[in-house]
Design brief:
mainly alpha; 10 helices; globular
Length: 240
């Protein structure tokens, strides 16, 4: 079976999960897709798709965005890291990229499962460490369009309520994925991915509708646990 058809299923799963839980469309679709396809081929498809959802949500929740945190702290550091990650990617090779992404996914899923099991209360990082982690989050975003795990860790202890935190993160993904999409347009990979993008648009819509239906019918905590277990297994498959 054509692996790009499998990717349609993975996109459906990813956007259904994001609609239910509020996180992870690219992380999930990329982690599943990378088992069958090289990461550099996946990114020009998955990143522009994410702009549609993150752009809509950024406009919808624009009043909740904490602009000082977004513009003065996160975006300057992550933008530098994203450009560095993009420039670094060709030197790493597909196999090494897949292994590094597997490590990131295992760390992220394992950490979240541990936190959920232990009711861990996070503590704020020192300022220097927070900034360094944000640059590192940008690098992982440039490599895998998956800066979320490290950015959320970097923002541990930041005093934002849940609505502002979520809206600010959505604005980060819209901004950085717009930057990556522009880069993909310049390097020609976006045009090559154009037909597949159009093919996957209806899948994204179905995933969002399915997620909205599930959101009121599943236990979100249990659902998140299942998602992290799935990511843990997927990260292991990528690594080994």
């Amino acid at each position: 079976m054509d692996p790009w058809l499998w990717l349609a299923l993975f996109i459906l799963i990813a956007y259904t999960i994001e609609t239910v839980t509020g996180f992870g469309s690219i992380v999930i679709a990329l982690s599943l897709g990378a088992i069958l396809l090289p990461i550099p081929a996946l990114l020009p498809v998955l990143v522009p798709l994410n702009i549609l959802m993150s752009g809509y949500l950024s406009v919808r929740h624009r009043h909740a965005i904490h602009w000082p945190t977004l513009l003065r702290l996160i975006l300057p550091l992550m933008a530098v890291g994203t450009l560095a990650g993009y420039l670094l990617r060709p030197y790493l090779g597909a196999d090494l990229l897949q292994g590094l992404f597997g490590v990131l996914i295992i760390w992220f899923a394992g950490r979240e499962l541990w936190r959920m099991a232990n009711n861990h209360t996070p503590r704020a990082h020192p300022t220097g460490l927070t900034r360094g982690l944000m640059v590192a989050a940008g690098v992982t975003h440039g490599l895998f369009a998956s800066g979320g795990p490290l950015l959320v860790y970097a923002l541990t202890g930041v005093q934002l309520d849940k609505a502002r935190f979520r809206a600010t993160l959505i604005a980060v993904w819209f901004s950085l994925n717009s930057l990556l999409t522009l880069i993909f347009l310049v390097d020609g990979s976006l045009l090559a991915a154009g037909p597949r993008l159009l093919m996957y648009l209806p899948v994204l819509v179905v995933g969002v509708c399915l997620g909205e239906w599930l959101h009121h019918r599943v236990n979100e905590q249990r659902f998140r646990q299942l998602v992290f277990v799935m990511l843990l297994v997927t990260g292991g498959a990528l690594l080994f």
